Amino acid sequence: MSLADCLKAVCNGRSDCVAFPTTWFYQSDWVKPYNLDLPVVPAAVIRPDNAEDVAGAVKSAGNHDRAVQAKSGGHSYANFGTGGEDGAVMVDLVNLQDFKMNEDTWEASFGSGFRFGELDKHLHENGGRAMAHGTCPSVGIGGHATIGGLGPMSRMWGSALDHVEEVEVVTADGEIVRASYTENADLFFGIKGAGGSFGIVTEFKVHTHPEPGKVVEYTYSISFGSPEEMANVFEDWQALAGDLNLDRRFSTLFIVHPLGALVTGTFYGTADEYKETGIAGRLPAGGDLNFKLVGWMGSLAHQAELSGLQIAHLPTAFTSRSLAFRESDLLNNSAIGDIFKYIEDAEKGTLAWTIMWNSEGGAMGDFIEGNSYPHRDKVIMYQSYVVGFPWITSATRGFVDGLQERIQEGAPNANSTYAGYIDPTLTREEANEFYWGEHLTRLREIKAKWDPNNVFRNPQSIEPAG
């Protein structure tokens, strides 16, 4: 039986369940690539209704030696949700959106097809609960909570994957199993940090928190001055964000864009509690301040608004680089000056670019065991994000690469990054070391046990040991 016939059998006659490259509007209506600079044509796209359908799709793909990758929100920088290269079977989890709340334990169970915006509504409506995740409401929880899941709540509560207590997952042989800290713990370790290499999660069980009552939000908007002036502002910001003793209720971003910079801050507490921390007196000065006190849902809306400045919501052609910094990797004043001089002078080939630094640390360092997320010692992360219209030019690539080189020169021992900030210019070997570091040997051993034939693969996925 052909791959197409196998997948049609899984769908059992359901319309809008499976499509192939010959299907009308296949790329726009089914594949929906995120980065138009990296075109990918999957062999098929299937939209399962349940875990059994996912299992059937995985078995079909494995029997025909096809790679399998799942897509939740579809925001992979390298289109890994579509397979990352031609010929994969793409499993679109959009229909997996069941939700349950256990009001005795306040653990929520939900399908991996949810995007943040809808998941937050369900958590809010079922007991006023919350969990940590990123800021863009259209990002899917399936990939986010299996690779890390960073956001403004992470310094206070840890990452999205730190909330995951148990998963239902389809493995490479098409079996449906449960994995947790006590059941299939090795698979759970791999799923929590490198999920795309180990299986397809169909359901998450997570612990939740009561929604914070009040949230302080501020934004400093700084018009672009001289490189020296911008460097001075960044020096003050880095001293604050890189402080290991910074109050965990506080997170902050420094975003450079064509018109200047934004310095944002989020504090989960009252205005009086924020004042008591002394953070206000340490903030960079010189910009126009927008200061407000909002509720939890208002804060989520504000963060979503800001994320529009960082990450495009619509498919575009873009390129990106990133690095993660320990306290010992923080940039000295000379390096900062060189970087902002470069940003000012470099030919960019586009007006659509942002460079973002975000605070890490805090509670991120509390969840070392039981997961493969390796960046527990990082205090700041940086990423560039540059859009080309209609495509990426050599000038644009040169700007991004030149910036990465200068930041790397200023932090020569910063040799890792977050796997959610995918850099498709890296080879598989470079990416594996860059993303997973000290966990890589163990991850390859686990891969050899659970996926020896490398069914779950993309251009930068983990390969089985041996």
TrEMBL record:
- Name of the protein in its database record: FAD binding domain-containing protein
This protein's UniProt keywords: FAD, Flavoprotein, Oxidoreductase
What family is reported? Answer: Belongs to the oxygen-dependent FAD-linked oxidoreductase family.
Cite the GO molecular-function annotations of the record: FAD binding; oxidoreductase activity
Question: Entry's InterPro entries?
Answer: BBE, FAD-bd_PCMH, FAD-bd_PCMH-like_sf, FAD-bd_PCMH_sub2, FAD-linked_Oxidoreductase, Oxid_FAD_bind_N, Oxy_OxRdtase_FAD_BS
Q: Outline the extent of the FAD-binding PCMH-type domain.
A: 38-211
Name the Pfam families on file: BBE (PF08031), FAD_binding_4 (PF01565)
Record's superkingdom?
Eukaryota
